[in-house]
């Protein structure tokens, strides 16, 4: 909520909204939507909207959802419909406190690929470092479940590992995940088809802003 309150302070022509990064022509969430983000969403939505907080609960297989240890890890075991409702809720809040029309949404597959290609072109060293660090931990503790939190303040994080990311295209996610880490240049076009919520399926938003 603090990030949304601060939304009105940024210059839409030059600066991304709080918590987002400019990636080429897009403003993109710096990291995947986290468990903490989702808990805040459930809490505030229950106070102001007709949709019940229970309907936005992740699948019960996500037993670590409310564990403080995983507060900044990406929320998983949610449906595309739930992710899109989160985008609509976020749009409503941001528009209400701004004098602009603000629209948060899932990227299309083509937009995700464009963002990923831009990230490699501008931050390849950071991407490689992130992958090496994550692979080291995964190889050292192969039987543990990893969902990594944010580490890099000036670039998009975990676009190519962590979790594959849902898109606006039904049942299609993009990118690698902690089970299947893919070389970044290959991951820019890596399509992941899914039929139900998964432990390795999350999302991040892009935003469109009209003056």
What is the share of helical residues?
25-40%
* Tally of separate helices: 5
Mean pLDDT, nearest integer? 84
What structural class do the secondary elements suggest? alpha+beta
What proportion strand? 5-15%
Overall geometry: globular
Number of strands: 8
Element-by-element helix/strand order: HEEHHEHEEHEEE
In terms of quaternary structure, the protein is single chain
End-to-end Cα distance: 22 Å
Instruction: Give the domain tally.
Output: 1
The biggest beta sheet is recorded as: 4 strands, antiparallel
Strand adjacency order, main sheet:
1-2-8-3
Our Rg estimate from Cα atoms comes to: 16 Å
Q: Which runs of at least 5 residues are low in confidence (pLDDT < 50)?
A: none
Structure in a nutshell:
This protein is α+β, with helices and mostly antiparallel strands. It has one domain. It contains five helices and eight strands.
What would your notes on this structure say?
With 211 residues, the protein is α+β, with helices and mostly antiparallel strands. It has one domain (2-210). The chain has helices at residues 2-5, 35-48, 80-96, 109-140, 184-187, and strands at 20-23, 26-29, 101-105, 164-166, 172-174, 191-193, 201-202, 206-210. The chain has a four-stranded antiparallel β-sheet with strand order 1-2-8-3. It has a four-stranded mixed β-sheet with strand order 6-5-4-7, covered by helices on one side. A hairpin with a 5-residue loop joins strand 4 (164-166) and strand 5. The longest helix has 32 residues, at 109-140. The protein is globular.
